[in-house]
Automatic annotation (TrEMBL):
One of its GO terms (biological process) is biotin biosynthetic process. InterPro entries: Aminotrans_3, Aminotrans_3_PPA_site, BioA, PyrdxlP-dep_Trfase, PyrdxlP-dep_Trfase_major, PyrdxlP-dep_Trfase_small. This is Adenosylmethionine-8-amino-7-oxononanoate aminotransferase. It comes from Gluconacetobacter dulcium. Pyridoxal 5'-phosphate binds at residues 113-114, 240, 304-305. It catalyses: (8S)-8-amino-7-oxononanoate + S-adenosyl-L-methionine = S-adenosyl-4-methylsulfanyl-2-oxobutanoate + (7R,8S)-7,8-diammoniononanoate.
Length: 421
């Protein structure tokens, strides 16, 4: 494959993510984005069905976010957050605290979802250390879960997940079990906590949807069971809302559907509207209080270099403006209804195991995908950008996607899956 000069000259020096580069098809050079469209170097235009890994919730290049970035770039693109603070970060922290339920009020900024989860793990473990309990070094996490690709976060992902199984025996050991979806799995988790609860610092879960682990759904009752279990056994509850936060499941935060308040929540992806890397780990008042002491060793000794980057925080504030000014949750409800209707036809295709929709997440699960490269190429041929993984073909479009654009996405999936051998 040939492309622009920059493509042909630079590609031999790039290491691509999640890719066996000996066998994978070459990546496609993109040159511009606008709304829900990606323009390619060869003149084609694709309708984006996954919002660049679920980040561009308002579509690409929204003028309000773009103007906020321009203004902040002219004023102060970055300044260290050690010993200095600035208006975009403090305003964003206050707004997040106001939006989140309960007393989730202390915001620690970082620049990626994996780091946000690492900080949450560190907070949870040091919470107990600061309280004089040194034995709580394990987390309870769940099969089907995904929390990042760093060493600490891999250790709390599904151990059978393909990206992480290679590191078995190297990673820290935690308790990985089934979500308490029914009486049997609830009893098993209860037994685990009865036996090992004194070693547990926190329970960690993706609320309502386990994303990269397979777009697996569970109901709000499952979250309520986890909150109850954490309370009865005196451990912290961490919700990883990096994927689900900011409207993706139909409410601003997934935990609101269960009417629970986690002790710590992690946010990223759509936080800045898909423009600049930014993440946050937000703790309740009692968690933060455990770090207040005359002992300097009780401080949270963590500080990413680009923590609370002003440019990213300005974009995030602009993104929150749009949630206030524009009908994003109503748009998510309309997307959900349209995807339910238009993806349902896939259920009758021979290779399809399940079709499920929640908010602006639409999933077609197959028995298997025999030729991933071919499937991805055929979707591009249909004029859409959809990236299947494992046995999943899914849509997580921008909330601003038009009915016609969404119909093109669902239609492409139906067409391509109908022709699959």
């Amino acid at each position: 494959m040939t492309g622009p000069d920059w493509f042909d000259a630079g590609l031999p020096h790039i290491w691509l993510p999640y890719t066996q580069m000996r066998t994978a098809s070459p990546p496609i050079p993109a040159i511009a984005t606008d709304g829900c469209r990606i323009s390619l170097a060869d003149g084609r235009e694709l309708v984006d069905g996954i919002a660049s890994w679920w980040t561009a919730c308002h579509g690409y290049n929204h003028p309000h976010i773009r103007q906020a970035a321009i203004d902040q770039l002219a004023r102060m693109p970055h300044v260290m957050f050690g010993g200095l603070v600035h208006e975009p970060a403090l305003r964003l922290a206050r707004r997040l605290a106001d939006l989140l339920p309960g007393d989730l009020e202390r915001v620690f900024f970082s620049d990626s979802g994996s780091v946000a989860v690492e900080v949450a793990i560190k907070m949870a473990m040091q919470y107990w250390l600061n309280r004089g309990q040194s034995g709580r070094t394990r987390l309870v996490a769940f099969r089907g879960g995904y929390h990042g690709d760093t060493l600490a976060t891999m250790a709390v992902c599904d151990p059978e997940e393909g990206m992480h199984s290679l590191f078995a025996g190297i990673l820290p050991q935690h308790f990985i079990t089934d979500l308490p979806r029914d009486d049997h799995t609830t009893a098993a988790l209860e037994q685990l906590m009865e036996t090992e609860g004194q070693r547990v610092a926190a329970i960690l879960v993706e609320p309502l949807v386990q994303g990269a682990g397979g777009m697996l759904f569970h109901d709000p009752a499952t979250l309520r069971r986890l909150r109850d279990l954490a309370d009865r056994h005196g451990v912290l509850l961490i919700l990883d809302e990096i994927f689900t936060g900011f409207g993706r499941t139909g409410t601003m935060f997934a935990c609101q559907q269960a009417d629970i308040v986690p002790d710590i929540v992690t946010l990223s992806k759509a936080l800045s509207g898909g423009t600049v890397p930014l993440a946050a780990t937000v703790a309740r008042a009692h968690v933060f209080a455990a770090f207040l002491s005359d002992d300097p060793m009780h401080a949270l000794m963590h500080g990413p270099t680009f923590m609370a980057n002003p440019l990213a925080c300005a974009c995030a504030n602009a993104s929150l403006d749009l949630f206030e000014r524009e009908p994003r949750l109503e748009q998510v409800a309309a997307i959900e209804e349209q995807m339910r209707d238009e993806l349902e036809a896939c259920r009758h295709l021979p290779a399809v195991r399940d079709v499920r929709v929640m908010g602006a997440i639409g999933v077609v699960e197959l028995d298997r995908i025999n030729d991933m490269n071919r499937l991805k190429a055929r979707l591009v041929d249909q004029g859409v950008w959809v990236r299947p993984f494992r046995s999943i073909v899914y849509l997580t479009p921008a909330f601003t996607v038009t009915k016609a654009e969404l119909a093109r996405l669902t239609g492409a999936i139906r067409t391509v899956l109908a022709e699959a051998p």
